[in-house]
Amino acid sequence: MRTYALRTHQETSLPLSIIYDNKTPKHERSHLHDCCEIMFIRSGYGWCSINGIHRPILPGDLYLMGKRDEHEFFLKQGGAYYTVMFQPEVIPEADRRELSQSPFFRNFGTPEFQFVNKCSFPIHTFEHVSRTLEQMRREALDAKIGRSLLLQARFFDLLAQIAKQTVLFPSDFHEKTDSLLGAVINYALEHYHETISLADLGKLTDRSPEYLGKFFHRHAGINFTDYLAYLRIEQARLLLEDMTLSLGEIAFRTGFYDSAHFTRTFRRIIGMPPSQFRRHLLPDNGNSDKED
Prior knowledge:
There is one protein chain. The protein has 292 residues and is an alpha+beta fold. Helices cover 41% and strands 18% of the residues. It is built from ten helices and ten strands. The protein has a five-stranded mixed β-sheet with strand order 1-3-8-5-6, with helices on one face. Strands 2-9-4-7-10 form a five-stranded antiparallel β-sheet, covered by helices on one side. A hairpin with a 2-residue loop joins strand 5 (46-50) and strand 6. Helix 2 (127-141) packs antiparallel against helix 3 (147-164) and helix 5 crosses helix 6 (209-220). The relative contact order is 0.11.
């Protein structure tokens, strides 16, 4: 099994490295690290398997893994993620003890430390974490004096944000759960542009809509309607880069019944209407939207 070494990725004297990867689709087969690893999903959907247990990947998910955690993941096209590799020694011992009081950092800094469960930063609040990670990446590449201090400060801020995050996903995943959850997620990934209801999924999985709705919320940490909306908006964000497509065409391609519904949902999740988001994509910040 492949083992990734931190020293091959270090940009500074600190035992710390950060990588941003948006070259997807990507299937990283089972591997280990000779250090701890943080994986933060900036965008996209797929699955992650840690120590043989599968979990759905959603935007805002964060995984903290130790040296003994064997993991594998698949991220669909359009996804992006940050990876932070580090040795616990980069954190002062007193701070490691404080962090270990959080369930997410149980046994942190000891040989017994390993993955507990993923945590999720809600899609409308994870921008601070994303900015911190991007600042860390830039500090690591900056040759100016003091970059190691700034990089370490950003990293401590990241750890504090993680420690304060209390939305931990359930740890009682098992083979039947994985199979049923995987069937629902895979169907949504393949059919997000169509009308999908819990009744349809119930027929697909031989479960009642009521049971399936409660099951999905319990094990994915989000209700299915919101999951589907986030999935569609992620796809819409990619399509908005094609300036030849009107908002109506994008709405149709991503499963919204009209432009108004698309705009309302986009604003609720992203915080701005799609026309404004598209303007930010233009080099001159101009406006070449095709209006409907």
